[in-house]
Amino acid sequence: MDILTMLILPIPEHGISFRFFLSSISFVNVLQFSVNRSFTSLFKFISSYFILFVAIINGIVFMISLSASSLLAYRDAIDFCMLILYPTNLLCLFITSSSFLVDSLGFSTYKIMSEFQFGKVKKF
Question: Which CA distances in Å does 117 have to 18, 78, 97, 108, 124?
């Protein structure tokens, strides 16, 4: 009870109404909750994409180390360009094509689904 009277007594001296004082406390609590929630969601977002970021950085470091070792092994510029451009293009193709392995092995999703629909699937 003493704490409540200590909170109520200074309010009339400064010309602040009690309802405005309570609403400002409520607003500060809501603001604090939303800030904590936004930091939590930001942390979840960063942690979920951190593995992808590390994989991309590892790929870049691998390409740089491969190019440096290739430059030491092969002094000819044409061989060096071929050694660098082929893995880079292969990596870009892998990233852009979501079904790179399926396409490279010759499987087709449409072909598999059409065989399944018509009952042509072989049973072992």
Answer: 72, 51, 26, 14, 18
pLDDT tens for 63-87 read 777 766 666 666 655 565 666 666 6
* pTM for the whole structure: 0.29
Which residue range(s) make up the domain with 28?
17-98
d(CA 11, CA 18): 7
Question: Could you give the count of Cα atoms lying within 13 Å of 68 in the half-sphere of its Cβ?
Answer: 6
CA dihedral angle for residue 93, residue 95, residue 96, residue 98, rounded to 10 degrees? 110
Q: Number of structural domains, the chain? A: 1
